[in-house]
Amino acid sequence: MSSGYFLTGTDTEIGKTYSAVRLLQRWRAQGKRVAAMKPVASGCEVLADGRWVNDDVERLIAATGQTDRDAMNPYRFLPPVSPHIAAREANVAIDFSLIASRYVRLAEEADVVLVEGAGGWLAPLSDTTFMADLARHLGLPVILVVGMRLGAINHALLTARAILDSGLPFAGWVANRVVPDQPFYAENLATLKAHLPAPLLLELPYQP
Ligand SMILES: Nc1ncnc2c1ncn2[C@@H]1O[C@H](COP(=O)(O)OP(=O)(O)OP(=O)(O)O)[C@@H](O)[C@H]1O
Ligand SMILES: C[C@H](N)[C@H](N)CCCCCC(=O)O
Ligand SMILES: [Mg+2]
């Protein structure tokens, strides 16, 4: 029986993929077969042969050794904008059932599947749906990446409340240092530990 997690963050660009790679490496080192999924990616580079390449997909694939990009990334959009806008511009409706069936396929071959959202917990996927709805559709416990910088306490506690409201288990959080020298880092971490109702799974240093 495989386990799966939905990885969200306090914002976009705060190190979800960076943390995903570290989590995947850790599980791999424990002898687990790992798979990653980036169901919806916005922001691609177009290669000379016309292929669309998303950086998150490439980084996740490099960490897991998966080869089938289409299986782990069913929706890929060119502009680096909110997925609901990218999907609307492309005339695409994001189908949660399709994502769930791909997830099941990945889970059949892995001990742990890590699903990375796009943006934060309430990043929209359409005019009426949000990342949180996709996480609920998949029914996965949630891991929150906190991009450690000024303002993150508020973002983290708001996100934690919204995760609890969703009814999904809040499996844990990652403290990812996105700035080199956050003043009073230890105190910020202690405040988060005191208020977040889930265990700190990983503390990642700033990497210059
Ligand atoms: N601990 C860290 N030290 C230094 N740089 C970091 C760290 N974590 C993330 N970064 C850098 O910050 C940028 C954003 O990180 P990342 O792509 O993982 O964010 P994300 O939350 O996955 O974004 P998105 O919402 O687009 O998926 C990247 O350039 C990454 O290398
Ligand atoms: C383009 C970016 N890197 C992500 N892929 C999408 C971020 C969506 C954020 C939506 C929002 O909350 O405003
Ligand atoms: Mg990412």
Automatic annotation (TrEMBL):
MF annotations from Gene Ontology: ATP binding; dethiobiotin synthase activity; magnesium ion binding; protein homodimerization activity
Residue sites binding substrate per the record: S42
InterPro entries, per the entry: DTB_synth_BioD, P-loop_NTPase
EC number: 6.3.3.3
Residues at the catalytic site: K38
Known cofactor(s): Mg(2+)
GO biological process: biotin biosynthetic process
Binding site for ATP: E13, I14, G15, K16, T17, Y18, D56, E116, G117, A118, G119, N176, R177, Q207
Keywords recorded for this protein, A-Z: ATP-binding, Biotin biosynthesis, Cytoplasm, Ligase, Magnesium, Metal-binding, Nucleotide-binding
Similarity section: Belongs to the dethiobiotin synthetase family.
Subunit structure and binding partners: Homodimer.
Described function: Catalyzes a mechanistically unusual reaction, the ATP-dependent insertion of CO2 between the N7 and N8 nitrogen atoms of 7,8-diaminopelargonic acid (DAPA, also called 7,8-diammoniononanoate) to form a ureido ring.
Name the record gives this protein: ATP-dependent dethiobiotin synthetase BioD
Organism name: Gulbenkiania indica
Gene that this sequence comes from: bioD
